Amino acid sequence: MSPLTPEQIASYHENGYLLLRADEHKLVEPAELKQWTQEVQAWPRVKGKWMPYDEININGERQLVRTERFIDYHPKFKSLVCGEQLAGILKAVSGDDMLLFKEKINYKQPQGNGFQAHLDAPAYDHIGRIEHVTANIAIDAATPENGCLEVVRGSHKMKVEFADAGRITPEWENAHEWTSVPLKMGDMLIFGSHLAHRSAENKTDKSRSSLYAIFHSRSDGEDLREQYYKHRMEMFPPEHGGLFFECVDVQMNEGEVADIYILEREDGKDYSKGYQTYGFAAPFTKAQEKFAATVDVS
């Protein structure tokens, strides 16, 4: 892609975000991005590698909502996220060389929950009180019907009121104008970690997956991604499967087969602070609540 125009850079700093269409940035073919995502989504739940998270959707069903820390196991995703082309775009808006801080795919499956109004920064501040820049690439088209991102223009310059952690108070949320940002497959939205944003439920019969790659300035440090995921693994592990749960089938007396989720977290450890840091606006806690309410492992 050619360098960003002065007008595009000024728009980013004024509004807090910048939209680049797929045929502008030309970072990846949308069909390839979709294929890579399907590969990651189908990965088994294994210990010590990628981090899958679940939700309880609006129909009360458990489903995969997100995968984090996956580029080390997918060279093509790593080439995209850590490539020179994206780095050049991010440097143009930030004024500095950028390093990857974290990466995630939000699947927003059919009947998937929305994300409450929030800022991203409070979920990262324990690693360093710095500005992060997110590159959000639409794997599927994002529309108001399937829960596209909504933002408050210029909110990165405002005093935002929090109910807890990084979740925004209903009073502040209702007092400001929210702008929907629909995306076509492959479009990229760049925004900072102090921009107020939210998304609604996906009430359609198709997924609305998105790639989020979050970056920090090189001048902030060299190993922040490692620090972040070390802390997250300790404080906010996946809620089943992956690192801390093992799912097994058990034959019931009546001849039925039930799924029993065996907890592998440290017995008696309180993970509530992890939820406050990492799950304040996301639907992760719904999966945890249902697990606690329906499974007896005594």
TrEMBL record:
Q: What is this protein called?
A: Fe2OG dioxygenase domain-containing protein
Does the keyword field hold Acyltransferase?
A: no
Q: Which PANTHER family match?
A: ECTOINE DIOXYGENASE, PHYTANOYL-COA DIOXYGENASE DOMAIN CONTAINING 1
As for family, the record states: Belongs to the PhyH family.
The root-end lineage is: Eukaryota, Fungi, Dikarya, Ascomycota, Pezizomycotina
Q: Provide this UniProt record's keywords sorted from A to Z.
A: Iron
Does this entry carry the keyword Phosphoprotein? Answer: no
Annotated GO MF terms: metal ion binding; oxidoreductase activity
Q: Which cofactors must be present for this protein to function?
A: Fe cation
